[in-house]
Amino acid sequence: MTTVFVATCDLAGLTNPRLALGVLIRAGLAGLTSGYDEPEDAAEADLAGVPALPDSLESALKALESDGVVRSWFDPSLLATQLSVKRTELAHLDGLDDAERTRRIADVY
Fold first, then answer.
1. In this predicted structure, what is the pLDDT of residue 36?
2. Does any domain span residue 7?
3. pTM for the complete prediction?
4. Considering its fold, how many domains does the chain have in total?
């Protein structure tokens, strides 16, 4: 038996952990079944063309919407609901300083 631990400290309170784990598993399966060559060790210079991860929730939502492969992993109504909920959260937190934003998120979750 293999045990897998997924550290979700950056996700805590920000997303449904089951959705996050499901996406990680689905992405891993896609990598295993897509016939990609096994990656070699890469130097920092080799990674220069690799796009950075989104730097905000809004840019992450836009990246999700523009990625047809990842969108196909979700039922359309679930995806629409998740996008709507996250955009509503952003609207409620807009203009707050970090301390107040953190307090409100902690109060909800």
1. 78
2. no
3. 0.72
4. 1
